[in-house]
Design a protein that fits this description.
Elements (H helix, E strand, L loop, with lengths): L20 H8 L3 E5 L2 E4 L1 H20 L3 E2 L5 E3 H6 L2 H4 L6 E3 L5 E4 L4 H11 L8 E10 L14 E11 L2 H21 L4 E6 L8 E8 L5 E6 L5 E3 L19 E4 L6 H8 L7 E8 L2 E8 L6 H8 L4 E3 L2 H8 L15 E4 L8 E4 L5 E6 L9 E3 L18 E16 L1 H5 L3 E3 L5 E3 L1 E8 H11 L1 E2 L2 E2 L10 E5 L5 H16 L4 E4 L5 H11 L3 E5 L1 H5 L2 E6 L5 E5 H16 L2
Parallel strand pairs: 3-7, 15-17, 17-20, 27-28, 27-29
Antiparallel strand pairs: 1-2, 4-6, 5-6, 7-8, 8-24, 9-10, 10-21, 11-12, 11-21, 13-19, 14-15, 14-16, 18-19, 21-24, 22-23, 25-26, 29-30, 30-31
The structure holds one RNA strand of 77 nucleotides.
Length: about 575
RNA sequence: CGGGGCGUAGCGCAGCCUGGUAGCGCACCUGCUUCGGGAGCAGGGGGUCGGAGGUUCAAAUCCUCUCGCCCCGACCA
């Protein structure tokens, strides 16, 4: 591709509305442009990288035995009503009506549609296992789209759905996808972790998320320092803490004027936050209840909702707190409370702790379980913290990371096949419910995550497998005929050899060409200048390392070819 | 949904408080010089100041409404 005839609108200044580095660089490198909040145009360079990721995904999905189809974005309400998600999905589901007033939505995911296909066409155990996938535009009307392609409302996703005769066959399908995902993200050159994850609104039995490690990531994940355990903090299990052995002292009410927060109270009393139990009031399916967590720990609402088995869980409003505790917010405590109490495991062994006293400006010291109050149950309902013991091995401790979720695999079980009555006849002629799994990859997000992980002060540093071009040939002086002839020759030779070359034939000053080349992140750069060319040489610069070598033309060609081949065949 | 901020030329911004009919840098066009890390000089084009309404002799500027965009929050005892 000749740069002068291509479309790469780079910009020097960082657009003011871009916050994270990948968003800024994708805008500056002319890869994307915003059309509306969370909705983007893909310009040529951006599209090329996206196509690269898609190609890798396609290869690995096909290798794993999945079969490509393409389903519509526009989906009839009836299917969603059948799965009950028309009501449950909420405002993220973009709904609209056609001219006949029939209701439709733009698909945020395709469980309903794919299950509809399968229930019509799959009748026998002989037709499974079956895994159907597509690469397609999804629409989710996110509360707050942000960070460019990282969290858009319209985005490209690969979604796959597996159909199996029973649970253990479904496990094999799940495992094949899991392994395929590992290969995909390895081939994309990403530093990632596969972590145990909560199943969220999709539902199902268990799942893993594929997280690209990056400080700007929206998710917190943990991994064990010694074993293979890794999980999203939403899901990560906490081990019980060894009990203290202090003798119970007598309960004491202390004045804590204006001290509401954990920090204020513990500082005022001169105790560590771990000696205090905070009492959080929540409303679960309409019922107010109290939740106890150690002062230095945070409540994990997802775990709590699971423990309570409730549908809706929210923090209680100020009014409810005051009504339940009889005190202003900041002084809630478990002693004398009339609502159900659930306590975190880590509080179980605590003795002589501090709590609120359900009265303005008062706390209790030396509170003890059983003597002063008794929670209905102890359960793991907190977020793990850095340094917590690993739940799976005796020696390890948990390390905390930030991650960008680029892929997610779910074992769904029969949630959708039951709702939509997708069944088959087994070898005995008996009707059985199909077992499903679903598997997603955010294509655009993968490109963005890659940039988060691969950039420097000058711009993007693409790994070869998903770079829009492998190599850029920069003709330093476009007016010098010998330079242009040589550069043109390199461009043709490399292109004929299957290397994707962007030929910067623009009549620009060298500085601008170098800046642009760095910004758009092409991994390899051949610089053709009159001085070196007089000696029959060109310069090869590696974007990532900055390494420069002066080579005769034919050697430069061989170098580029072998570097590209090595990167693509790993 | 709550809180905060911003909409002025393609991009980044000033002007607004204290009304008087729009400016800077980059980009773009022309010419000359320059040419290995975002050149210099000279000339030039481009904006119904997000939109609607109001106040006023006069509105980018003041008031009201509205639309769009960005950030934070929606874990707090």
């Amino acid at each position: 591709m000749r740069y002068s005839q291509y479309f790469v609108p780079t910009v020097k200044e960082t657009p003011s509305d871009a916050e994270v580095i990948s968003h800024q660089l994708m805008l500056r490198a002319g890869m994307i442009r915003k059309l509306a909040a969370g909705i983007y145009n893909y310009l040529p360079l951006g599209l090329r990288s996206i196509r690269k990721v898609e190609a890798i995904v396609r290869e690995e999905m096909n290798r794993a035995g999945a079969i490509e189809i393409l389903m519509p974005s526009v989906q009839p309400a009836e299917l969603w009503q059948e799965s009950k998600r028309w009501e449950k999905y909420g405002k993220e589901l973009l709904r609209f009506k056609d001219r006949k007033d029939a209701e439709f939505c733009l698909g945020p995911t395709h469980e309903e549609v794919v299950t509809d296909i399968v229930r019509r066409e799959v009748k026998s155990y002989r037709q499974m296992p079956l895994n159907l996938y597509q690469i397609q535009t999804k629409f989710r009307d996110e509360i707050r789209p942000r960070f460019g392609l990282m969290r858009g409302r319209e985005f490209i996703m690969k979604d796959a759905y597996s159909f199996d005769v029973d649970s253990s066959a479904a496990d094999s399908s799940y495992d094949r996808m899991y392994q395929a995902y590992r290969r995909i993200f390895q081939r994309c050159g990403l530093n990632f972790r596969a972590v145990e994850a909560d199943t969220g609104s999709i539902g199902g039995a268990f799942s893993h998320e594929f997280m690209v490690l990056a400080d700007s990531g929206e998710d917190a994940i943990v991994s064990c320092s010694t074993c293979e355990y890794a999980a999203n903090v939403e899901k990560a299990e906490a081990r019980p803490v060894a009990p203290e052995h202090a003798e119970p002292r007598s309960l004491e009410r202390v004045e804590t004027p204006q001290k509401r927060s954990v920090e204020e109270v513990t500082a005022f009393l001169g105790i560590p936050a771990s000696s205090l139990i905070k009492t959080l009031l929540v409303v679960a399916d309409g019922e107010p209840l109290a939740v106890l967590v150690r002062g230095d720990h945070d409540l994990n609402e997802i775990k709590l909702a699971k423990v309570l088995g409730c549908e809706a869980l929210e923090m209680a409003s100020e009014e409810i707190v005051e009504k339940v505790t009889g005190a202003p917010v900041g002084f809630a405590g478990p002693v004398g409370l009339k609502v159900r109490i659930v306590a975190d495991l880590a509080t179980q062994g605590m003795r002589n702790f501090v709590t609120g006293a359900n009265a303005r400006d008062l706390h209790y010291k030396n509170v003890n379980f059983d003597r002063d109050f008794a929670p209905e149950r102890f359960a793991d309902i907190r977020n793990v913290v850095h340094g917590d013991p690993c739940p799976r091995c005796p020696a390890g401790h948990l390390e905390l990371w930030r991650g960008i979720e680029v892929g997610h695999v779910f074992k769904l079980g029969t949630k959708y096949s039951e709702a939509l009555r997708a069944t088959y006849l087994d070898a005995e002629g008996k009707e059985q419910t199909i077992f499903m799994g679903c598997y997603g990859i955010g294509i655009g997000r993968t490109v963005a995550a890659c940039i988060e992980q691969n950039h420097d002060a000058d711009g993007i540093v693409f790994p070869i497998p998903i770079a829009p071009f492998h190599c850029i040939v920069s003709a330093v002086n476009a007016k010098d005929a010998s330079v242009m002839t040589a550069a043109e020759g390199l461009y043709r030779t490399l292109t004929d050899a299957g290397v994707e070359v962007l030929f910067d034939d623009r009549d620009e000053r060298p500085g601008s060409k170098f800046k642009d080349a760095d910004l758009i992140g092409i991994p390899l750069r051949l610089v053709v200048g009159s001085k070196n060319l007089a000696e029959g040489k060109v310069e090869l610069k590696i974007r990532k390392s900055g390494e420069v070598s002066l080579l005769p033309l034919d050697e430069a060609v061989e170098q580029v070819k072998s570097l590209v081949a090595a990167a693509l065949n790993q």
